[in-house]
UniProtKB/TrEMBL annotation:
Superkingdom, natural source: Bacteria
Keyword hit for Signal: yes
Protein known as: Deacetylase PdaC domain-containing protein
Signal sequence extent: 1-22
Keywords: Signal
Amino acid sequence: MKKKFFIGLLTAMLLYSNSLYAISPTMLNSYKLSRRLAEIKIKEEIIKKDNKLIKINLKIPKISGMADKELQNKLNRTFRDKIISFSDNLATMAQRYSQDSQEYDLPIYPYQASTDYQVHYNKDNLLSLTITYYEYTGGAHGNYVKEAFNINLRTGKKFSLADLLGKNNSYQKTINNEIREEIKENQELYFADDVQNLKALSKDSNFYLQDNDLVIYFQIYEIAPYSTGTPEFKIPLKLFEF
């Protein structure tokens, strides 16, 4: 329960303030029919620090090739600011722990903060990537949260499941049915109670695009133990009627 609360708190901190990304509902086909933008590339910035209090290894995605440089810079600032904020918060926690360890004679060990990212989809004027935030603050293992950025590159706005599939009124049912069927094949990997109570997905559910699939994922401890990782479910886009 403590671990679930901690992951929920970390998730809330990382995903706070999405007002920058709200857009009106738009069908996937409308993106595909639009003219292709100039080739967009994703480079990376790497930041490393290592001292007795904390080890930091950050990989920050950096978009290049957009015609609208102001929008490109705005998106890059969003990625960088979120990652640096995550690292700074953990560095502050490490400093406090160091002070407490000296006062109460506690064992001293370095905290760890790292980020990585993966580009899943970069075409049709859409960019879909995930950033994984990993932290270690003691114990048997660290914890991590995966955040998806699904962005309309024409506007710089983030799109939700409802924006992508909203005109298909049965999309939530289709997704839940596909997830349940896949879970049945490996039920031992999941928490029985959480799977049994799997609720309808909200428009803010975790997802990304990959090739011709919609990928729904859950954070660690959300529906499965740590050993399962972040459960991911690939659902062919052809199942949704556009």
